[in-house]
Amino acid sequence: MRKLILISTLALLAGCGTPQERCIAGATRDLRIVDRLIGETDRNLERGYALEDVVRTRTRWVMCRPPKAATKDKEAEPARMCMRDSSYTVTRPKAINLAEEREKLAELEKKRAELLRSAAREVAGCKIAHPE
């Protein structure tokens, strides 16, 4: 049992990456976020509108209790249904100001350049601190 726990723990830790990889991932986190935002803004400008996710709720019939078979002491019980709310997401178009989107894109690209410089320094530090 202990061997199984030890092996599964080691397998889990092996999937987390080396100390250098974790350090580099931390150093480039903000850069990846800004890159994602730049891509999203680019796509909004190409389309001419944004897409937003809206969470909606609907009430559905669900099985609250499964059917129970008859025993010698009790009769069979049918399944019981009840109403439950469930959430779902809908993507819908949203109007945007194209001039503001272009301005936002320019600001994000400036910020990306700053982050790229600082991330390069931090990645170099990670490679020195955690050589492979």
Automatic annotation (TrEMBL):
Superkingdom of the source species: Bacteria
Protein name: Lipoprotein
Organism: Pseudorhodobacter turbinis
Lineage per the UniProt record: Bacteria, Pseudomonadati, Pseudomonadota, Alphaproteobacteria, Rhodobacterales
